[in-house]
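Q: Can I see a sequence and its folded structure?
A: Here is a first one.
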Amino acid sequence: MPVPAAEPAPHPEPSPDTIVAGPAPRTVPFGALLVSAPVARALADMGYTTPTPIQTEAVPHILNKSDVVAQAQTGTGKTSAFGIPLAELLDSRDRFVQAIVLVPTRELAQQVFAEISLIARYRGLRLACVYGGQPIKGQIDALERGVHIIVGTPGRIMDHMERGTLRLDRVRIAVLDEADQMLDIGFFPAMRHILRATPRSRQTILLSATIPTPIKRLIYAFLRDPQTVRAGAESAPVAEVRQMYCEVAERDKLHGLLEILHTHEYDQALIFRRTQEGVEWLVRQVARAGHAVDGIHGALPQSQRNQVMQDFRDGKLKLLVATNLAARGIDVSAISNVINYDIPENVEEYVHRIGRTARMGRPGTAITFVAEWDTEAWDAIKAHVGEAALEHINLSLYR
């Protein structure tokens, strides 16, 4: 089912006497941080006991109302790094849009919406999640009821702005999450247009795994003396990922994949393909071999994408085949293995893919197939991560 706009994540509704309105004082320790009692309670409900490094670095700057550039990979806790300050700084008594969070994909919008909803659940803040592929009327109804935080994709947010159903002239905080990915899929003009529609006095937080030149220009144009924080080096794989590879002919990839699934233990595995057609073909072949598998890509109806993701999160599916873009926003802690059936096209893509496992410090394994046409791309990846970090697998096909 799609995550409905302006509805909290699936947890019991807090009773009215547990909700704290207005700006909340920071009084309760959360590791090295100080947060309000309502936020501390929400974090405890979520099972969060200590902040991650990116949260420890970023949260104090954001609470101090500084602009922030946070360079962090997926799986480092970056959503809560801005979600906690949003819950603390916004005032539930002011029934207008006070914060906007831009994300590149529908799946990431749903994920960010759900997490901030949980963090802010005792603060009385209302959220709406807006993205394409779902009826716009429900989103309009939610916006008319009044929300404090908008999470959405740039295209649908622009749509609401043009319809007059969303005004950003009182936004206090703007967040650009995975800014480099929004750049890659063509949202750069939309990001600029949306930021121009917000007050110049707003606080801006930009999160990005890499900082290419266009993102540097965006920072220069729209952020004021930003504080820069980092969790890990730029384009560095998560240390807990065991990186493996096997050399396999293109025609033998399917046999190689089935061998790996048979011989390597895994909880859940995310398998990457380059094209939508490739996803669908591989799902059919792996299903015929008796595995619980499904696929996700941009051409699927939103309701089907939501159902596939829910089945994966619930553990009904052990294998998920996805394109790069559709995998944005997938944050499932049980993903123990990432398999690059089609080799990533560049180092940044490799790092993003394998970062889907080893979430929040858990161990994970990434396996990359290197076919006869992949030598150039693999040499670049190998030079970046270092040969010492890579383990070679011999398939029985070639023994």
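Q: Show me another, different protein.
A: A second, unrelated one:
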Amino acid sequence: MLEMTAETTEAASKRELPASMVERMTLILDAFEGAGSRLTLEEVACRTGLPRSTVHRILDQMVRLEWVDHASFGYCLGRRAKSLGAGDNGQSRIREAAAPLLHELNMHTGMVAHLAVLDRGECLYLDKVGGQLAATLTSRVGGRAPAYATACGKAILAALAPEQVDALYGRHLPRRTDRTIADLSTLHQELGRIRRRHGLAFEDGEAMGGIACVGAPVRSPEGPVAGISLCGPARPGHLERIAPLVADVARDVSRMLHPELGTPRRARRTADVPARSWSPHTMERLVATQSGQWI
């Protein structure tokens, strides 16, 4: 009798599981408490009450459709889920925070300042600030470029887990110029160097011949949300000198958007002389690589 009761209870439990895919997806999305929630497969299965094999199969589909992201720690909400109810996914807020600092970068250096976000492996430009030089660059607000070919994009990619980068690209990458990184393994090597430079990314003629850039990521507690870069004609040694400015601005925008990261340092700067937060010796160590090249 007890065995029949157990079997009956198990059968009833199975019948109570949501039958439709929509209901099961909803249960899985509801398992995440917010944009920064990170769960293992076991945790998702436990919170939803769905069988582990079922959860794994549905999560695989949701990762492919960008409802969920999969990284070394497990799963988190993806681009589509985060954008629901968020209008432009926070892009206006990022642009508003960065705009005055982009103008300051342009005024101090005479170079073109960019703000971009990562969208399915591409840089989507939210802002572009520059004088006559800006008209000579092919980038435009609302335009796109392969993230792996720009300093701004590589700075964002380096802040992602390697498996997230793998999910964005195939083994071979289309070239923009003869200097563009053309395969995934070389890209991972470059991203490793960027991580060792604490997020500073350099690009020399990879997106447009004769143009060099330096970029840094805008971060949130959950990961990168944008990238900031300065671009201009390639000149030996010039990017190394201005790189601390880009890193400081990216850090300040990160802190304005996410105060929990710390207090912005802009109030401690003078308006006329850009401060260097790193010594020349530290900067030399940051930009150095074994080959002596950026890529």
